TrEMBL record:
The keyword Transit peptide does not apply. The keyword DNA-binding applies. SMART domains: Ku78. It comes from Massilia pinisoli. Belongs to the prokaryotic Ku family. Residues 53-181 form the Ku domain. With LigD forms a non-homologous end joining (NHEJ) DNA repair enzyme, which repairs dsDNA breaks with reduced fidelity. Binds linear dsDNA with 5'- and 3'- overhangs but not closed circular dsDNA nor ssDNA. Recruits and stimulates the ligase activity of LigD. The lineage of its organism: Bacteria, Pseudomonadati, Pseudomonadota, Betaproteobacteria, Burkholderiales. Homodimer. Interacts with LigD. Keywords: DNA damage, DNA recombination, DNA repair, DNA-binding. Residues 265-351 are annotated as: Disordered. This is Non-homologous end joining protein Ku. SUPFAM superfamilies: SPOC domain-like.
Length: 351
């Protein structure tokens, strides 16, 4: 069983509940040691006297407060306890509030509170009261040398003390470019909102904390195991040159992204026009001509010119006529393409 880090009592009106405090969270990060890259020897840090340069052992270290440049007041743990005995030994409940009124950004560090000797009944009384009224207790507590604002929360059968940040410890968001609710640049359509809600509903499930784990830490440990097996423990892996990433467009098609997230095919861009008259892609059916069609919509193919009447000889006239005819055929083919492109527009107009 872990050792308690704090012993005292919860002050609840005139009721005192003896409790012991235990850490509720543990750091499972990667513990990496700094090495000298020349011989891979561990790097050490020394506690040394800045006046003499000599190393100092833990037994010879005391704490002090610098009240003037280079001048210190020495403070022992007993001095800190005697400054305010009640503050260092009690959790004073100041008020009870609804849990949803305290934003998550205020929560800092959780601790378990277990009943001390003879405190089972009063501990259970506070626990059941918090459970019944659905509120949390806001309290003051001194841990080590800092006073904390704290929330007493009923979690199952345990009372959890979660330290809170003070308002002046929360950084303002004034300098951040947060879109306003009525901003035109960030305006959300009803279709986008409905699709996003459908995505949230599709991904909703019961809270199962056991299914979440630190996959990054697992991957790094697997890489370490692989390097050990390959006898590459002293290999320095250099970064590869980064590939240039294609520039991203500023305009984001949210509907396509949401549809893809929902497992649907993104709608074709042309479908957004809501035009039922256009033929399906891949078909080249010719639109029917109508009497009231506007001929200006179609670019006519240029006609071949006649051979000049004043040609000097029959041979030169024949050559000129052949050249003109070839040019006319080429121009006719080139003009056919824009005419085909303009065809859907003529059909819409006729409809």
């Amino acid at each position: 069983m872990a050792r308690s880090m704090w012993k005292g009592a919860i002050s609840f009106g005139l009721v005192h509940i003896p409790v012991e405090m235990y850490p509720a969270a543990s750091d499972q990060g990667l513990d990496l040691t700094m090495l000298d890259r020349r011989d891979f020897a561990p790097i050490g840090f020394k506690r040394y006297n800045k006046a003499t340069g000599k190393e100092v052992s833990w037994d010879d270290i005391v704490k002090g407060y610098e009240y003037r440049d280079g001048e210190y007041v020495v403070l022992t743990d007993e001095d800190l306890r005697r400054a305010n005995p009640e503050a260092t030994q009690s959790i004073d409940i100041l008020a009870f509030v609804n849990a949803e009124q305290v934003p998550l950004i205020y929560y800092e560090q959780p601790y378990y509170l277990a009943p001390g000797k003879g405190g089972d009944k009063v501990y259970a009384l506070l626990r059941e009261t918090l459970r019944e009224v659905g509120k949390i207790g806001i309290a003051n507590v001194v841990i080590r040398v800092k006073q904390h604002l704290a929330a007493l929360v009923c979690v199952g059968d345990t009372i959890v003390l979660n330290t809170l940040r003070y308002p002046d410890e929360i950084r303002p968001v004034d300098e951040l470019k947060i879109p306003a609710a009525d901003s035109k640049a960030a305006q959300v359509t009803d279709k986008e909102l409905q699709m996003a809600k459908a995505l949230v509903e599709g991904m909703s499930e019961k809270w199962k904390p056991q299914q979440y784990h630190d996959t990054y830490r697992e991957d790094v440990l697997a890489l370490i195991k692989k390097k050990v097996a390959a006898n590459q423990t002293k290999t320095l892996t250099e970064p590869e040159p980064e590939e240039e990433k294609p520039a991203k467009a500023n305009v984001i098609d949210l509907v396509s992204l949401l549809q893809a997230s929902l497992g649907k095919k993104p709608a074709a861009k042309a479908a957004a026009d809501d035009d039922d008259d256009e033929p399906p892609p891949g078909k080249s059916a010719k639109p029917a001509r109508h009497a009231d069609d506007d001929d200006s919509d179609e670019t006519p193919a240029p006609r071949a010119r006649k051979a000049p009447a004043h040609a000097a000889t029959h041979a030169s006239a024949k050559r000129t006529t052949a050249a003109k005819s070839t040019s006319a055929k080429t121009a006719t083919k080139a003009a056919a393409k824009p005419a085909a492109k303009a065809a859907p527009a003529r059909r819409r107009k006729a409809a």
